[in-house]
Specification:
Elements lengths: L3 H12 L37 H10 L13 E6 L4 H17 L3 E6 L2 H13 L6 E5 L3 H6 L18 H6 L1 E2 L2 E2 L1 E2 L2 E2 L2 E6 H7 L7 H11 L5 E4 L6 H13 L10 H15 L12 H9 L3 E7 L3 H7 L3 E4 L17 E4 L5 H14 L2 H11 L2 E2 L2 H10 L4 H7 L13 H17 L4 H14 L2
Parallel strand pairs: 1-2, 1-3, 9-10
Antiparallel strand pairs: 3-12, 4-5, 6-12, 7-13, 8-10, 8-11
Pfam family, one: SBP_bac_8
InterPro entries: SBP (IPR006059)
Organism: Actinopolyspora saharensis
């Protein structure tokens, strides 16, 4: 078992005084499609975890309990996730059950709303009552792994071999693999084909082409581009491809490259090519603007595809433009990773069997096809891109994608919020990009 004192200190250091600034990420299609809720797609609620003196007392009192892990039916795998959307929940359960049945096991599934998952995980970890199999948003893996409550996947014969490197990195902590994702999502540029054809335009590949297309297509109530700059993980998530492709880094926010990226981003609004309301829009709002014809282009994720198909919008999808043609897009990876918490050897082995089954080609392809995700394995993803052309841009981008926690580890959430605030302040015109990023950098320096 991990050290109680070390665990409590880790919780205190990670969360005290800053968790009220954390936001749920990604992901989510909130009723848009049966997409899983783990990336910043359309969700803007904050993670309301606060560790105060009173709660620390509760943690200390409950930490001595076993939580009944040893008394669980050995043939039942207790699983926890935050896929509460009805369709997503049903489809995810089908894959879980299929894999469990192969080994003569049954799944006891628990799902909680996104903003309640991490508080529950941290409480259960303290009480030594974590489930056998857990799916967490990939930026949260670092926080959970830091407590010592997770087991390394290598001991069950699971590895990241054949998976995209950034996906393996997203599931690792201090060089050890703790989680793997059946699939991930990311961002791309959607464009209105009809508007582009009428204007005689080709989809943009560079920042300059993006600005020119947006300027040409901004007419009346239609803006050239729509994106989310809301003060949460969604806002950071949408800006990160532009920050990274220009050479900026989350741990070097005051660098000239970082400043220029924010100047470009905010300049789209300042020049009237994007609405000032982007500071209030989550990603579902952005979909609405695009589908209704009020935006000629949008930055959004693969979870948008079904909504756009249902709306009858004539659209195309291309990788996110970069400063120059030689630079590959660097998008953040969204999605959940499956982890095996420390319970008992037998329970851990059974949970790992189920997870390993979910990572097999057919099950991975089934799961990702249902949710418009990119399979984590390179060979499966390449086949998927051939079978589903609309997903090809997303597959292309995952190859050069980035784990959001790569630079900062568990500090990511706090710095992400500071960056979202900087983007908002700049677009609102209350400060310059340089000053806004200086403020965010100070937060990054002081993040625990």
């Amino acid at each position: 078992m991990w050290s109680l004192v070390g665990f409590v200190e880790a919780i205190r250091d990670r969360l005290t005084g800053r968790v009220d600034r954390r936001s749920t990420d990604d992901r989510a299609p909130a009723g848009r499609r049966p997409a899983l809720e783990g990336h910043p797609s359309g969700r803007s609620s904050r993670l309301p975890v606060r560790i105060g003196t009173g709660l620390l007392v509760v943690l200390l009192v409950t930490a001595g309990c076993t939580g009944g892990v040893g008394s669980r039916d050995p043939h039942v795998v207790v699983e926890l996730d935050h896929y509460t959307d009805a369709a997503a929940s049903r489809q995810f359960r089908a894959v879980l059950d299929r894999c469990a049945q192969r080994f003569g096991l049954r799944i006891q599934r628990q799902d909680v709303p996104t903003d309640q998952l991490m508080p529950k995980v941290l409480r259960d970890a303290t009480a030594h009552s974590l489930p056998d199999l857990l799916f967490v948003d990939n930026p949260d893996l670092q926080t959970v792994a830091e407590t010592g409550a997770l087991t390394e996947l290598s001991q069950y014969g699971l590895s990241g071999e054949g998976h995209f490197p950034a996906i393996v990195e997203a599931g690792s902590h201090q060089g050890k693999l703790y989680g793997l994702a059946p699939g991930v999502n990311g961002l791309a540029l959607f464009y209105n084909r009809t508007m582009f054809e009428r204007a005689g335009l080709e989809p943009p590949e560079t920042w300059r082409e993006l600005r020119e297309a947006a300027r040409t297509l901004t007419r009346g109530s239609t803006h050239g581009l729509a994106f989310s700059a809301i003060a949460s993980e969604e806002g950071t998530w949408q800006f990160e491809p532009f920050l990274w492709s220009n050479g900026g880094e989350l741990d070097e926010l005051t660098s000239p490259d970082s400043v220029r990226a924010l100047e470009f981003w905010s300049g789209l609004v300042e020049d009237g090519l994007a609405s000032r309301s982007v500071v209030n829009w989550n990603q579902n709002d952005v979909i609405d603007r695009f589908a209704s014809g009020h935006a000629a282009m949008m930055i959004n994720g693969s979870w948008s595809l079904s909504t756009l198909d249902e709306s009858g919008t004539d659209y195309g999808v291309v990788p996110i433009p970069t400063p120059s043609p030689e630079i590959a897009p660097q998008v953040p990876l969204g999605g959940e990773v499956g982890v095996v918490p420390e319970t008992t050897p037998r329970r851990q082995e059974n949970a790992a069997r189920v997870l390993g089954c979910m990572l097999e080609r057919d099950n991975m392809l089934d799961w990702t096809t249902d949710h418009a995700y990119v399979p984590s394995r390179v060979d499966v993803a390449e086949q998927y891109a051939r079978d589903v052309p609309a997903m090809k841009p997303f597959v292309t981008e995952v190859a050069t994608g980035r784990a959001r926690t790569a630079e900062l580890g568990p500090r990511y959430r706090e710095v992400s919020q500071a960056l979202a605030d900087a983007v908002q302040a700049t677009i609102a015109g209350t400060t310059s990009p340089e000053r806004a990023l200086q403020r965010a950098a100070r937060v990054a320096e002081n993040a625990d």
